[in-house]
Prior knowledge:
The protein is mostly helical. Helices cover 44% and strands 4% of the residues. The chain has a two-stranded antiparallel sheet with strand order 1-4. A two-stranded antiparallel ribbon has the order 2-3. The radius of gyration is 19 Å and the shape is globular. The two termini are 30 Å apart. Residues 1-11 have low confidence and may be disordered.
Amino acid sequence: MASLSFREKKYVVFTNGVLQGCDASILLDPSTSNPNTEKQAIALCGYDAVNKIKAALESICPGVISCADVLAFAARDSTTASGGFTFGMPSGRSDGLVSVFGEVFQHMPSPSSQLEDLLKSFNAKGLDAVDLVALSGAHSFGQTTCSFVKPRLYPANPTMNATFVTVLRSVCPQQGGGSILVNNNRVSQDPNKLRNAFYQNVASRQVLFTSDQTLTSRNDTAAMVADNAARPIAWMARFVGAMLKMGRIDVLTGAACEVRKVCFATNSAT
């Protein structure tokens, strides 16, 4: 799985899980029979790498390992590579036959989401507040663009550290510059490592997204943030538990699924 970065794996895996379930629907290209797919609604990285991984697997054991399993295994391996801890990821998922454009807008949390909206989205997929807070720790690294940050800078959001706002304004101008890349973690010395530093950033009000800062807006989730900041091993255990739960979301069986030959198209695509 080395050809796919953790950042690419993280977003593709999470998006795949919260849309129609763990069925690799996010990987499907538009076709005559399915012209409006999830891929058209959200910009993600890593598709080419997933296709190369699948092609390599098909050359060795055709028709055995689904694209949904490829994504799940990628999440496991990338956690080890970037976070230094590992876990066993069950296999046996199948791939879906459809991808629905509108699912993205119904189920994907936004960077501007408030806590109750995030919990509603997670609860709908069998995930709870502990899972939400634990998985948010993945924002200890990776990148976003200024277009997602500027709404909190102009005017300055009162939930943000004032010095942090000044630093971010030097990177993201009020006019233009929406495509400029910004590290999710601009506080710790290593912005490319999966670790619990995220929770310290939340506590000091130095995170980029409303969806991150809002974790402190309720007493119970604020306590989870503090505990994850203080106890890295406990956070790792919660992160693993949440990843495993996400890997079981709406797994398909029977005639509604298959093991695709390629990840970007169903076996009978037209």
